[in-house]
Amino acid sequence: MAQVSLKQVEKVYPNGFKAVHGVDLDIHDGEFMVFVGPSGCAKSTLLRMVAGLESITGGELRIGDRVVNGLPPKDRGIAMVFQNYALYPHMKVFDNLAFGLKLAGTSKDEVAQRVQEAARLLEMEHLLDRYPKQLSGGQAQRVAVGRAIVKKPEVFLFDEPLSNLDAKLRAAMRVRLTELHRTLRESGRPATVIYVTHDQVEAMTMGQRICVLKDGVIQQVDTPTALYDRPANAFVASFIGSPEMNIHPAVLDGDKIVIGGVQLPLPADKAAKLGGRRGPVRFGLRPEHISAQPRQQGDTFEVQTQYRFMEHMGSEVFVHFDLGGLPLSARVPADQLNGLASLDRGDAHTFHLQLACCHLFDAETGANLLV
Question: pTM, whole model, 2 decimals?
Fold first, then answer.
């Protein structure tokens, strides 16, 4: 496998639109890297530039020790799995897997060995004699992945490969692809993977590191845990996490935060990091740090709110309410609803905020002031 290195990589289209802005990123040998962000953030464009399907306007792209800016896709040592799988309908699964190898002049015995190995890894030996129309969505997706594996590439590229599957099958395939990456590493064939998705659940559960993109600019690159606990800015904080972080305009006044006309005490360690800063900020608190009853551990601060509605998610409930006219949500275990279940819209209710877990963001730049 190989490291992928992007140095000041840019993409400018003929009409002058700049899609990718000076991206610097090192993807380690054998790493599972996820590109995530909203539609239009250039994550697929960046992937296609690595693949050689989009030209690079500026900067340098290396795969291993080679600069590949001008190399065609077939010479880059990559294999790509697309969103639509692109299987040949008139060929059986075996021939779909073998097609690229045969074009490259690989011997018949080598083709059979590689196809059988990929089929075994993906548990699809029983599918080799079927045609694509006889496959389920998940099976077709496995064939597309197998077609990449048989090439033994330096880098695997996945462009939203699960987006056409239903929710249950997507969850199963997330596990399968993550286990495949681990299996290849343990068998001495570590795979460098770049995986594009707009689904932050996929990103958080699959990636060893995640690159969060917005408008063609990297916002933060880190592990899933670090992104969640220490977001670099308000965009990352709101994009990573479901339901998303509560973020609202506030005013910093010494060791106090005023939000929606309600004054909240700022924990001493956080106030110390701010060095006496005052003025407009943005206050952030994740829904799981708002509870319907006092926590046994950690300080909480009581606030009076107005109940709006709730969403039942099974073992937990997302409760929506207003604090001084601002909408907030809390993530409450279903067995801790207490009197919430009987509330009507507009009823008053006390919630408890874990202010030790709050974030403060610069009002103009969005940068996290506490990291």
Answer: 0.91
